[in-house]
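Aim 2, interim progress: modelling of the magnesium ion-bound target.
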Amino acid sequence: MTENEMTSNDSTEPTPTTETAASSPDPSGDPLIEQSIDVEGTDATAGETGKPVIESSDLNVFYGETQALQSIDLAIPEKQVTAMIGPSGCGKSTFLRCINRMNDLIDAARVEGDLYFEGKNVYDADVDPVALRRRIGMVFQHPNPFPKSIYDNVAYGLRIQDQTENIDEKVETALKRAALWDEVKDQLDKSALDLSGGQQQRLCIARAIAVDPDVILMDEPASALDPIATSKIEDLIEELAEEFTVVIVTHNMQQAARISDKTAVFLTGGELVEFDDTDKIFENPDSQRVEDYITGKFG
Amino acid sequence: MATREPETGWHGENSDVNHLRGRAFEATCLAATAFGLVSVMLLLLFVANDAFRPFSADAGWLATYAATVVVPLAALAVYYYRLDEPAGEVAYVTSGLPVVGLLLTGGFAVLFIELLSVLEWFALLISLVVAGGLIVAHGRLRPKAALERLAVVLLAPIITVFGLPPTRFNWFVTDAAAALGLDFGLYYRVISLREAILMLPFVPTDWVMLLLTLVLPIAGAAGWFVEQRRESRRDGLTVVGLTTAVAVLGVVAGPLLGIGTDVWLLIVTFAVLPLGVYVEGVLRRGEGVRGLAFPVVAVLGVVVGGVVTGALGFAGPDPWLDWGFLTSATSRTAADAGIYPAMVGSVMMIIVIVLTTFPVGVGAAIYLEEYAPSQGLMGKFVTLIEINIGNLAGVPSVVYGLLGLALFIRVLQWPQGSIIVAGLAVGLLILPIVIISAQEAIRSVPDSFRQASYGMGATRWQTIRQVVLPEALPGILTGTILALGRAIGETAPLLMIGAAASVRLAPNSFFDVASMMPRQIFSWSSELDPSFRHGVLAAGVITLLAVLLVMNATAIVIRNRYQRTG
Ligand SMILES: Nc1ncnc2c1ncn2[C@@H]1O[C@H](COP(=O)(O)OP(=O)(O)OP(=O)(O)O)[C@@H](O)[C@H]1O
Ligand SMILES: [Mg+2]
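Predicted structure of the complex, ligand included:
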């Protein structure tokens, strides 16, 4: 985490973590402005366990007739890494998509219950999903860069959100943080589809963080990466957690144990079995089923 | 080394593995393919023979040209194919580029002769450029005002091209001007920039206007392209400078050679410029240089053949399809008959179809694919609509002709057999095809692109504009061009709406009564004189097929160019 210190205008400066304006739900708040206000404010509460920024209560999701999530109650703390683990098909991606309302795009999906982001129920009628998604970035399970140049991919979000000042710098910073800059700096005009799968995934991460969202949802961001790139991404995630709230789905137990502060364990059928501090989950889980899953007796 | 003996006979064909049925099936499929291809080829050869009548030439003539053109070119082709593939590609492009360029030249020449004067073209283009400038300027000044922008985008071209209808305000201005003795005869409306240019007392000569509006922009684009490719400003400027120089030279020298200056300028822009840029590139890269021999040999062969046949007094063939056929109107005598007015009619009809069907069809496809609900009652309704669009694509073309007759001629009272009516009737006919193929193209854009875009916080409009449409455009264009190919050959609707059986003068307004190629061909087919039915008809069919071929080739080129992504 050294390159980003060169850019001084954005929020990647290593300022002490502070409690942000997120506590008072201020939908118009621009992350940049919030950050600069906070610096002047108090930093007394730094390091304290974040208060919940995303809270779900009795959240049920149905695909047609089948229920994919069963009454999920979960509170994701601010500026920490929350991991979601569980066997394939247990609804991790579904829960992630609930947070930024990507389920709206699936015709068959129906969401019941409440999910609060900064105190506002995102399923209220007056919430514009577009505004929500501008604050909650997402990296998908399969790399999905646009069939455009590498540069245009990273610049896409900046352009559609009208953040076109210093766009070259922002693109460069994002690519550096995603550990991709050295590989592509000479070929920013090349089509993103000509990159390898792992490079594409890092490009998608760069694309998501370029716009400085408040929350980043990552659906198995490291599944297509080699160990070196994976560890770079893990470093990135830990670094991101200083300023952003990160929610990550992973099938890799060690990864979850390494990088996350909190862990949610989903089990087949779409129920949330246990949600607690990561150390607790991995060392001394309450539920026998969680212990079985983690130790590999059940999958 | 000891050869191994297999212990069991598992490896060969035996009762377990039987290829017989498969082979028989393969042979049947091959036979069906061959039968279809051969019969179509035979038919085409037959028609082409009627149109060109190669065997009406002296044997000596045929032999001479075979020796000077056919044999050398065939030998070269074999050489390229066997030994030098890059040269073959170069040969292909250097022969194809001039042909396409000359076709474009012909198209523009027809445009300037029949539809627009050069001055009108100049005025129209300047107005459009000014409108474009206004739109860009507005985008720069007020990037956030979306509604305002929509108004500017819609209104700027309308005002610069058509002006504004009468309003109180204009009355006032016109009356005030008249009271001051300045009577412009503005009919109480705001005149457009286009009309203002047309009214100018002094206008530049035609060639200057063409140079400004056609040669320089295209040369500039080519120069920019070269500059990008080679990263050399000088090369780009050279392209622009040379093109302009050659163009101006032709304006001076053209009259001496008997070529009109306008035609010369068109040839320079559409044929000489692309060929020059390409040949220069080939020479510089030094790859496939031998391919350049192909067009040279072709031209030399034709010249030498002409000299030899002239010297020895061999008579050439007397084809039905010749320059005279393409440039003259139909006539009572088969020998003088031509297809020119019908060709202009077809081109103008295609213009109407493109301008109406393309926006409507693509708009409908975008709505159905990206906006229309797919669930609930409305979803059912949308499905019903989609099924019916599919059905409409299968409705016989006579029915569309009947629709055109009833709607445009009986109800709207537009002139019977006019180009606008023909274009709209045939446009309705291909509308379902355009919608369906555009839907297909839009559907083939992977959903993951849309998700990525929405996930970044893009609105639906931004997603469509920036991600879906750029990806779908090649497919949409291909589908539309193929549909246009269908449109240009349609006959039944033209009969129903009363397109003229034959006209002597090419139409010069969209409300003129005109004939179109298929309609003209159809009326030749019922002439009593057999040379109409065999010769002229065949020539017309070949012309129509050539136009179709060019359109389909364009579609294929577009498709291949963009196929890589996906
Ligand atoms: N678009 C959809 N339509 C219908 N059912 C779906 C859809 N997406 C997911 N499901 C169902 O919902 C359940 C949960 O799926 P989800 O993708 O959330 O699982 P996951 O935990 O992310 O699995 P994995 O680890 O394999 O990615 C699965 O049973 C799946 O079949
Ligand atoms: Mg998943």
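DSSP finds eleven helices and ten strands in chain A. Residues A 92-93, 141, 219 surround magnesium ion (ligand 2) (CB under 6 Å).
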